[in-house]
Specification:
This protein is α+β, with helices and mostly antiparallel strands. The protein contains 5 helices and 9 strands; from the N terminus they run βββαβααβββαβαβ. It has one domain: Aminopeptidase (3-Layer(aba) Sandwich). Helices cover 28% and strands 27% of the residues.
Length: 181
């Protein structure tokens, strides 16, 4: 995610920080999604992939806030109000390694999603992305929008996501939040 921090000077000489997106959205054809994900199948031997329980809301929210910041935590929080909960988590040895959220900022939008730095390059991102996209497909969506993409090459390589022309700045234009960069 790439954001430009800007300030608005208010009448009382205080200021309000906000961020302007310089990220594009991407589109994934869910009808072309593969039936299986080999990374998910392999990693599932030692890592649990599942939706969190309502009772785990504060644990998941605190973890996302610590690892990725307030903005992402706010969107994950919204996912707990959906039925079913629209977040998937990866857990190993009772520790959260990553998450993928959808239908939080907007319906039919995937994101945020993230994997703890020390757990990257193992296929966790692809596995979590597959679970979220497949869930969206099962809900009847033909396409998924990945909002405010940071690692565009990852999404393009993983499930052939395409940049949506004219989507920058997207839904986060003028956001009043400290979203992680």
């Amino acid at each position: 995610m790439f954001l430009i921090k800007q300030k608005i000077i208010l009448e009382n000489n205080t200021y309000l920080n906000y961020f302007t997106s310089i990220m594009k959205d991407m589109l994934v054809k869910l009808y072309d999604l593969p039936k299986k994900c080999k990374e998910l199948e392999e990693l599932s031997k030692t890592i649990s992939f599942r939706r969190p329980l309502a009772a785990e809301k504060s644990i998941v929210n605190k973890w996302v806030k610590k690892e990725f910041g307030d903005g992402w935590e706010s969107e994950v929080d919204v996912s707990f109000s959906r039925k079913p909960i629209t977040t998937f988590i990866a857990i190993e040895n009772d520790q959260i390694l990553g998450f993928a959220t959808y239908d939080a900022a907007y319906l039919n939008f995937l994101g945020p999603m993230g994997v703890k730095k020390i757990s990257r390059k193992r296929g966790l991102g692809k596995a979590l992305l597959f679970l979220a996209l497949n869930s969206m497909k099962e809900m009847g969506y033909a396409y998924a929008i990945i909002g405010g993409v940071g690692p565009a090459k990852f999404y393009e390589k993983t499930f052939d996501a395409k940049i949506i022309k004219g989507s920058d700045p997207g839904i986060y234009k003028g956001i009043l939040s400290n979203v992680p960069a």
